[in-house]
Here is the input.
Amino acid sequence: MPDMMNLQPLKAVPMGENTYVIEDNMVRCFLFVGTKHALLVDAGFGGEGRSLMELVRTLTDKSVELVITHADPDHIGFAGEFDTVYMHESEIARYTAMEGRNDESVVPLAADCAIDIGGRYFEVLHVPGHTPGSIALLDCEGRILIAGDSVSGMPVFMFGEGRDIHAFMESMKMLSGMKEAFDAIYPSHGPIPLPPEQIDKQIEAAEMYLAGKLTPQEPPFPMPAKMYVHGGAGFYI
Ligand SMILES: [Zn+2]
Here is the structure.
């Protein structure tokens, strides 16, 4: 995580039609603009002197719904700028503990529901593992999987409270079974886009890890975990 005092300005990059990637230092958010509403996925690091809402307002004048993929600090920083924040119910306790926001503005998002922004539908998929209430969003028309931190070209953080490698494996198997529905994966960190096959690489790496076949390595920066990598996927655990 970068030094919170030294964050660069937010940067919006168009990515296909009515889609923006908003880069916030080492994490990114996504804005999808429909004919009726706009959908903002995740809310960055936050930090004084910067505003995600102001940037979004330069991109669309549609009403904006904020959905967070999970309640890690690098995904919820600007959530307080929005009237309502939607998340899986299993993330709400952690979110309210961090943000001190515990009222009707925090709304549980049912898994398997669809978000309709007008001309574009997003299916909500519960993918526990990285966190208990992690979700991915399937952009049905754009054929994109917005994966949060659950699929990444870099090792996935799997250490600390609430992380569950077994649940993660089940979630990856579920996503792998849906690969005919998307052509690209948009992760929150690291290289973008990723091919759908990254999911299978993660399954294989998790299987190898659980079988005790991977050698622990020192992470590139200090953290209370080891790094395990195999075949282009891996974990900090
Ligand atoms: Zn993250």
In short: The domain at 4-236 is CATH 3.60.15.10 (Metallo-beta-lactamase; Chain A). The chain has a mean pLDDT of 95.
